[in-house]
Design brief:
The structure is a single chain. This protein is an alpha+beta fold and 482 residues long. The strands form eight sheets. The chain has a five-stranded mixed sheet with strand order 6-3-2-1-7, with helices on one face. Strand 1 and strand 2 form a beta hairpin. It is elongated and about 85 Å long. The structure holds zinc ion.
């Protein structure tokens, strides 16, 4: 090897909002370009207050950019360049998505767009982001949540294509807020502690308040906390409140809560008490719904269905996540409170060899709020997690017991299920046990079987032999295959 050349550099940036961060740059004969060779070739240009053409690429002799102050033209460029990179990394490492369109192409950024321009926007035509400098050209609209928000408009355009008007417009805006704050959480910057607030760094109102708050969207004086007839008729940046609120409740639950030092207090339309499933799962459900089920005309009712489908795909129809999605939509007045009355999944009779570790989940389905689980007559050595219904431990004594698991909901409603649990030591008669998985389909799904959609149901026109669920095979009075 006579000579090697590293074409990818990591420079140091000092942004207005992002603080000191590493940024991707490209070396040239005379210095460096603000162009990132690792993320689809994304680059950042200076519009010098103009609004047409692409601007001029930032270059400099050393690989240290900006000084953290808006007066240095590179500082806002560092924000934008970092925000685009963080958004790229978030989509790639979280969902395996290669860029906005999923085709590996990087978007470009234009900073110092216009004069006193208090906004930022995504443009599908130039496949680029534009950032204004805000009031007096000293408050650049370049925070990482704004970058994530704007670029997510490009993802939405490339996937569901939610029309930017009516309820689909509100869902389009909410998608950008939801995944925008997820980019902020992903970046996790010391200079921009992640939160469920949109635009808290850019001070667009001049009074220090954020642009939008997801825990209670009406804090901004305009946004809708709950669905109502006609909500699609208000500005899409306010009708988005319904879905933003849904996302917060699904992630963190209702009531007062402090996350990363920020205090939230999230109300519910139906006065239900919700516990969250965490923002990572909530975002995975939203992204799956966006990319697999939502279309240009999806409204709030259809968004509920889309996210329930997504939760079923990711976590199962009887899962706590599925139930939580239904409850969170109901808490923002979209759809019925619960898909079903509370019930416990029947796990089937259990046979365990003495000294073998056990891990059995007996989850509740339906019901409102998070239940507390208890179990009677578990084999010695086993215990149930009160919060999750997971039974773990190692049985230490042979024998057979009849176990009853009970879930108690906040309302006082209970559901229970009973099964036998035989612990064998290799001697004596073989214990009787149900060895067929999900024998009565009482989990509400076919697994571990596979079935034609609609075969497993609770239709009472032809009631099940026992319990609520059954698999209805043919019997339509005409030729039919299940
Ligand atoms: Zn937007």
């Amino acid at each position: 090897v006579i000579r090697t050349f590293e074409g990818v550099q990591t420079g140091t940036g000092h942004g207005v909002h992002v603080g000191e961060v590493p940024i991707g740059t490209t070396p040239t004969d005379s210095g460096y370009q603000l162009k990132d060779g690792t993320r689809g070739g994304t680059y950042t240009t200076d519009m010098h207050g103009g609004t047409v053409d692409g601007g001029s690429l930032f270059t400099r002799s050393t690989d240290s950019w900006g000084d953290g102050l808006p007066s240095n033209r590179e500082s806002a460029a560092v924000d934008a360049h970092f925000g685009v990179a963080a958004t790229w990394d978030f989509y790639k490492n979280t969902f395996g998505r290669a860029g906005i369109r999923g085709d590996g192409a990087g978007a470009s950024s234009r900073v110092h767009f216009g004069s006193g321009y208090r906004n930022a926007f995504w443009d599908d035509y130039c496949f680029c982001m534009s950032f204004g400098d805000g009031d007096s050209n000293t408050h650049p609209v370049t925070s990482v949540d704004v970058a994530g928000h704007e670029m997510t408009h490009g993802v939405t355009a490339a996937t569901a294509g939610l029309m930017y008007a009516g309820e689909s417009g509100g869902l389009n805006e909410a998608t950008s807020d939801i995944l925008g704050i997820m980019v902020e959480f992903y970046a996790d910057l010391p200079a921009d502690t992640p939160d469920y607030l949109i635009g808290e760094k850019i001070d667009i109102r001049g009074d220090g308040s954020p642009l939008r708050s997801m825990d209670k969207p009406s804090k901004d004086g305009r946004s809708a906390d709950y669905w109502r007839r006609g909500v699609g008729g208000i500005d899409v940046h306010y009708s988005s409140g319904v879905a933003n609120h849904f996302f917060y409740l699904l992630s963190e639950g209702s009531g007062a809560k402090t996350v990363n030092g920020v205090a939230y207090d999230s109300p519910t339309y139906d006065h239900s008490t919700l516990s969250g499933i965490g923002r990572d799962k909530a975002a995975a459900i939203w992204y799956r719904a966006l990319t697999a089920y939502m279309t240009s005309t999806t409204d709030y009712a259809a968004a509920r269905t889309a996210t329930l489908h997504a939760a079923e795909d990711l976590y199962g129809a009887g899962s706590g996540e599925y139930t939580a999605v239904a409850a969170a939509w109901s808490a923002v007045n979209v759809g019925a409170a619960q898909p079903a009355a509370p019930a416990l999944t029947q796990p089937g009779d259990q046979v365990t060899a003495l000294g073998t570790a056990v891990d059995l989940l007996v989850p509740a389905v339906g019901g409102s709020g998070a239940p507390t689980y208890t179990a009677d007559s578990l084999p010695a050595g086993l215990s149930i997690d009160a919060a999750t219904g997971r039974i773990t431990g190692t049985p230490g004594t042979a024998g057979s017991t009849t176990v009853t698991v009970t879930a108690t909901f906040p309302s006082g409603a209970t559901a229970s299920t009973t099964f036998t649990w035989a612990v064998t030591d290799g001697t004596g008669p073989c214990p009787s046990a149900q060895l067929i998985g999900n024998a009565g389909f009482e989990s509400g799904a076919a697994q571990p079987w596979t079935a034609t959609p609609g075969t497993v149901d609770t239709d009472r026109g032809q009631a099940s032999h026992g319990g609520s669920w059954k698999a209805w095979l043919d019997g339509y009075g005409s030729g039919h295959t299940d």
